[in-house]
Amino acid sequence: MTALATLVEDLDRTLNIASIPDYPGAVNGLQLANVGDIERIATAVDFSTDSAYGAINSGARLLIVHHGMFWGGAQPIVGFRHQRLWALITHDVAVYSAHLPLDVHPELGNNALLARRLGLTPSGGFARFQTIDVGLSGTSDVPTTKIVDAAAAIAAEFRGTFSVTAFEADRVTRRWGICTGAGASSATLAEAARLGLDTLIVGEGPHHTAVEARERGIVVIYAGHYATETLGVRALGDALAVKFGLSATFVDAPSGL
Q1: How does pLDDT run across 221-245, given as a tens digit for each residue?
Q2: According to a count of CB atoms within 10 Å of the terminal CB, is the N or C end of the chain lower?
Q3: Do 104 and 132 form a contact (C-beta atoms < 8 A)?
Q4: Does residue 7 contact residue 206 with C-beta atoms inside 8 Å?
């Protein structure tokens, strides 16, 4: 068994929590403490009733999530919010969240792991946010259909949505960018155009990004917000378990997006 403070210290250092900017609702780091030591950890993409009870039912005493408890901003702790918080406290389960710090990690990050799954080798950054590049970019000489098929397989694995903007069957991807989650926006499309990227792989994006992408001559592969962000949190949990001799489980609770 390992003390929560020991695990939190290691997570904070590994993910560089203090130095990476993020959205106000992320509140990266320890979000809910527990009392006892930890023998089993659970990981999940989202903090939700499903992930809370999934952690409890697995016997975990620490739940690590990508989208944390305060993602929607300050809310009254009533109804389902009170029920899941009460369940976590009474079962002595702590909650730790890592959003952009997990996206950008060079080994355990969502973007790095998605690039690896797609057979792409990064050589630069992409999707600038304040002082960091959230995503990755690189060069390739790969048929676009091959990347599309690999991305579709990931979406199917986690029961999410998948779509891709139109392209010619013999098209080859020369310069690509990846930004998992809500990676498609007018800002990322404009950035892609400046960098000369021809293909973007993202989780999701508004309808207008598909229209704009065609105008810019960029193919966008929407592989699912949930699916593209299962990779990092699972890898983080597994790495932590190995390092401290714990057991880890992934709570799969697809959003359908």
Answers
A1: 999 999 999 999 999 999 999 999 9
A2: N
A3: yes
A4: no
CATH 3.40.1390.30 residue window(s) in the chain:
4-102, 104-228
Q: How far apart are CA 154 and CA 83, in angstroms?
A: 33
Decide if 40 contacts 61 (C-beta within 8 A). yes
Single-letter amino acid code for the residue at 82: H
Residues, the chain, total? 257
Closest CA to 251 of 63, 91, 11, 28: 63
* Residues 186/212, Cβ–Cβ less than 8 Å: yes
pTM, rounded to two decimals? 0.96
> Considering only the top CATH level, what class is 4-102?
alpha beta
CATH superfamily of 104-228: NIF3 (NGG1p interacting factor 3)-like (3.40.1390.30)
Distance from the Cα of residue 124 to its chain's centroid? 19
**pLDDT tens digits, one per residue of 44-73:** 999 999 999 999 999 999 999 999 999 988
Is residue 224 within 8 Å of 204, Cβ to Cβ?
Answer: yes
